Amino acid sequence: MAVEAYDLSGRTAFVTGAASGIGRACAVLLARAGAAVHCADLDADGLDGTAALVKDQGGTARTHTVDVTDSLRLGEAVASCERLDVMAAVAGIMHRSTVLETRDEDLDRVLGVNFKGVLHACQAAARSMIASGTRGSIVTMASGAVDTGGPGLLCYGAAKAAVVQLTRTLATEMGPHGIRVNAVAPGWIRTPMTDRGDSAAQAQTEAFMSRMSPLGRVGEPEDIAHAVLYLACDASSFTTGQILRPNGGVAMPW
Questions:
Q1: Active site residues per annotation
Q2: Could you report the per-residue pLDDT of 225-238, keeping only the tens digit for each?
């Protein structure tokens, strides 16, 4: 396929969770592909850092300090885009507790960000794209946790599984409008969210996760950003309702 299929020049992308990690990598790469990028997060300083990276590479970035659990504020930020072509709903948080130790407030907090925050982003993007007649792309962020159980990951895994169902349902509803909806389900990625805060513990965790992968390594945020770029651009014009799994081969579902 021609390289032009990956060109986002003249298009606008909105990225939640853009202050660090996968969200930052997505914002930078989408900008490198030519998109004007709107970066959203609660971390204002992190957003400034992302915007600086985008601008250093000749791109255009606008920042929005917003909580994705606030549907009104997030909707206003999305509506500020004159035309929206790409939504990358990346914002998420991690929580660990066993099933027996999980409290209602833990589940509510994780579902609020990891599922409802994605829902709010999808709703705002779909409304914008329908209103402008844009045949756009919405990319959600699921997780390898949807393919396997893991101790302590009930809240996180349940929220990400809900994102998968949201993605598939929205894809069926937006297809008639020419809007594609897909999810990325990363494996273990080296980000601030997976940082154990102790170098020895981090090295041990990464060594274990590397052994789990046929490729023998853990992932980097850029690995996921390239998956998002593919789903965002015309190269994936016949792809919707799918779950793309850049996980190093740790999970290989049918």
A1: 156
A2: 999 999 999 999 99
